[in-house]
Amino acid sequence: MNAFTQINPPSTGCGNAPVLKQRGQREVFCGLTSIVWLHRKIQDAFFLVVGSRTCAHLLQSAAGVMIFAEPRFGTAILEEKDLAGLADANEELDREVERLLARRPDIRQLFLVGSCPSEVIKLDLSRAAERLTQAHAPQVRVLNFTGSGIETTFTQGEDECLASMVPVLPETEAEQLLLVGALPDVVEDQLVGLIEALGVPVVKALPSRSADVEVGIGPNTKFIVAQPFLGATAGALTGRGAQHLAAPFPFGEEGTTAWLRTIAEAFNVSPEKFDEVTAAPRARAQKAVAAASERLSGKSVFFFPDSQLEIPLARFLTRECGMTALEIGAPYIHRDLVSADLDLIAEGPVLSEGQDVDLQLDRCRAAKPDLTVCGLGLANPLEAEGLATKWAIELVFTPIHGYEQAGDLAALFAKPLKRREGLTL
To answer: What secondary structure letter does DSSP report for 207?
Structure first.
């Protein structure tokens, strides 16, 4: 059997680079925002946020008003008497859940999402979930996780959600691959199709689209993560005996090829079979990235911490699009997940974890990057100062994984530069 062709890493990567760690004022959405994409992905689930009217307004603003279909998320609003401990919040929560399930018999999974720490909302949602599961099983499984902005940032809500599902997954001895991370259905279908074409015996996804699709876990389960912010979920799966396949993330042609190659090696797929399955989509991706990245080549990029996608996206932009990274900021750096991407980024950029936004703004202004990737709250002020910006949140809601989306991913970063060029003509 011939050996797989490996990626050529830089002579010195960022794997051992020092990390600038700062804790101060930060600009990032809270974990409740993840419900916006999770409720679309898990089709028989309902996300009940236990929180204030502020949380309800956030979800309505982030998700929009759904006129033609009932959304599968809502808010159990805590009034002043609840927060003061004057009412039995458990009784009220049980009553609201019973009312919800009677009106929506299609719900198979109910997530209780805390918008604040339990000390604030005067409710232990983990115990509430156990109590409600006993009351409504087997028709409905009730789980809980936190989306509190005090405890979580933007994408950590998904991590908390998936991690809450791992303990209740049934045991299985089957040899299988578990694809971990909520992806748009079309992207998941593309990646699963490629993996199955390689001959991997059983491919399951977490989260699955329905509770009817049973996902088990056991010592013969290998899992690969599709999102770099799922550190808690990966830890929970490892704790159940599953084996983590560490790989660069599937952004761009190179990242997708390395991600798939890791799977192929783990399941003893021959290099010949791998090339047969991936040659055509690889060629399409290379051509699409080359066309979309003409405007990016030679330009510099500065990442503010937001989505935790920053490190693999920096690898994509520097290695496939010819950009130079000046600073790569991430809210948290899960080295078990992103070390493969860090090793592929040539040394040079500042690597930062956490945020003191004023200090980071000073560094950004001094660096004068051609493109700044940041949150919505910083984008408009920086644009007013003459910097081209890319909204980080768009990278979470847009399909960007895999071969077929590689050109679109490069184009997302090229678009602000094109707009800036048009404004200066």
So the answer is: S
Q: Going along 134-202, which residue ranges are E strands?
A: 141-146, 176-180
Measured CA to CA, the distance from residue 169 to residue 199 in angstroms comes to 25
Q: Give dist(CA 187, CA 146) in Å, integer.
A: 27
C-alpha 90/C-alpha 12 separation (Å) is 56
Same structural domain for residues 291 and 419? Answer: yes
User: What DSSP designation does 346 have?
Assistant: B
Q: Would residue 46 count as lying in a domain?
A: yes
- State which residues form the domain around 332: 19-26+285-424
A 10 A CB-CB count for 77 gives: 15
Q: Which amino acid is at 326?
A: L
Token pair for 415: 């678009």
Region of 330 please: left (phi>0), alpha (psi -120 to 50) or beta: beta
92 and 132, same domain (yes or no): yes
Q: Dihedral of CA 196/202/206/212: which sign? A: positive
| Structural domain ending residue among the three candidates 256, 283, 310 | 283
151-209 pLDDT, tens digit each: 677 889 999 999 999 999 999 999 999 999 999 999 999 999 999 999 998 999 999 99
Shared-domain flag, residues 274 and 376: no
Q: Is 244 helix (H, G, I), strand (E, B) or coil?
A: strand
Count of domains forming the chain: 3
Q: Which residues pair with 221 in a beta bridge?
A: 176
Q: Which residues pair with 73 in a beta bridge?
A: 47
Name which of 407, 417, 329, 410 is nearest 375 in CA terms.
329
CA distance 198 to 337: 23
254 and 329 housed in the same domain: no
**Which residues partner with 143 through β-bridges?**
111
- Residue 6, judged by CB atoms within 10 A of its CB (0-12, 13-18, 19+), counts as exposed
CB 148 within 8 A of CB 7: no
266 plus 394 within the same structural domain:
no
H/E segment holding residue 96: helix 89-103
Under DSSP, is residue 86 helix (H, G, I), strand (E, B) or coil? Answer: coil
For residue 123, being part of any structural domain is answered with yes
Q: Write out pLDDT tens, residues 250-298.
A: 999 999 999 999 999 999 999 999 999 999 999 999 999 999 999 999 9
On whether residue 160 sits in a domain, the answer given is: no
- Residue 9 resides in a domain: no
Contact 323, 316 (CB under 8 A): no
CA-derived radius of gyration, the chain:
22
Whether residues 102 and 180 fall in one domain: no
| CA–CA dist 129, 32 (Å, integer) | 18
